[in-house]
Amino acid sequence: MVGRAWIYACASVLILFAFAPIVRSQGTSPSNQALPGQVRLILPKTIYAVTGVETNIFFDDVILSPNAKDYVFDILCAKGALFDDRWAYTPVAGEAGDFPLTLEVRDKTNAIVASGHATIHVKASAGALGRPVTLLAVGDSLTEASLYTQYLLELADHGNGPALHLIGSRGPNNSPAHGSNRHEGYSGWTAEAFVTRNGPLSRSGYFKGEETGSPFVYIEDGKQVLDFGRYCAEFNDHHAPDFVTFALGTNDIFRGTDETIDPLIDKILGYFDQLVDMVHTFNPSTKIGILLVIPPSSSQDGFRHYVDTERQTRWQYRRNQHRLVGRMIQHYDGRENENIYLVPTYLAIDDAHDFVLRPSEWSAENPEQINRVIDGIHPSPVGYRHMGATIYAWMLSTMVDHQVAKR
């Protein structure tokens, strides 16, 4: 254990170099710049916002550091408010438009050590009022929880939202779909599972672990194939959905290390590409949102129950997650003309407050109670709502931009 602790301590010094390929050097990209002192910063080029819904950038989510409070953050933008831990903006009526944003990271000497640029893309929610739209949400346990999908329905039902219809074979409480809250969320699943897993089940919607087959995998002429058209025939009256989101990656990278993470991500992106191709082979007009994987809790406490084969530390998982987000941006950036979008859900999570806490004794000898995070991966209901708000802003912005037709 001493040897491992020493290795982790050394690794913290080498953060920037271990992940050097993702750091965009000054002059190589208008979006992210690594300056003297280098801090690895990842910021997508587009952040979506819609009137009446708060958009957040939590600073701990954009840089890779054991402690973001070692740095000072400044955001230069005509809109929004700068807080200690985040930038927040809730557009009001009449504020539709594109607003440039610059994020600067400074060290204790006030030197800028990293900077990033993005565009806040704001649309009026009234532009989607009452418009019928369908969404298929695909993912792991974060989707199976059925909480961000429920919040999407609530947002659509409130104010100037569209007539949102969710499709899928599953619903809340690990059950066959019933009611309006539907999705394809499977606890523990990876992108690979959705591409390769064959089994008897998913037509009923029940989840039985390894016995469960991917809802998109069919046997045709004795061969296992991805057939999104057949899936849509079963679950959406033969129609392609207007939107599909993929919220995957958490399980894919969980056991990664600094040595294995890049080859692992190569495989992950290969499976993502197959899922994207599966959807667009059936209908290239479907808009696909790649959800950028949310960060873990800021506390190691939430990882204390991940033991044996599931053992992982918060810091290693955070390194893996940050690396995956950067690689996803590199891989899918600028492909909106192919109806492939990056949805920056990772920016919206408050890793210090959006995870479930439970009272716990300080120690066996100190019965004083302290609130500790009980799960470092799965957010609280508030965290899921932040995810839902980010997805909703993307959907409505895209709907208004492209005028998704009424049926």
Write a brief structural summary.
By secondary structure, the protein is α/β, with parallel strands linked by helices. It has helices spanning 2-13, 15-18, 59-62, 141-144, 147-157, 191-196, 228-235, 250-253, 261-282, 314-332, 381-402; strands at residues 32-34, 46-50, 55-58, 72-76, 81-82, 86-89, 97-106, 112-123, 132-139, 163-167, 170-171, 175-176, 184-185, 217-220, 223-226, 243-247, 287-291, 340-343, 357-363, 366-373. The chain has a single domain (2-402), classed as Rossmann fold.
Tell me about this structure.
This protein has a single domain (2-402), classed as Rossmann fold (3-Layer(aba) Sandwich). The model is unreliable at 1-30 and 202-207 (pLDDT under 50). The protein has eleven helices and 20 strands. By secondary structure, it is α/β, with parallel strands linked by helices. α5 crosses α11 (381-402) and α9 packs across α10. The strands form six sheets. Strands 9, 10, 13, 16, 17 and 18 form a six-stranded parallel β-sheet that branches. Strands 1, 2, 4, 7 and 8 form a five-stranded mixed β-sheet that branches.
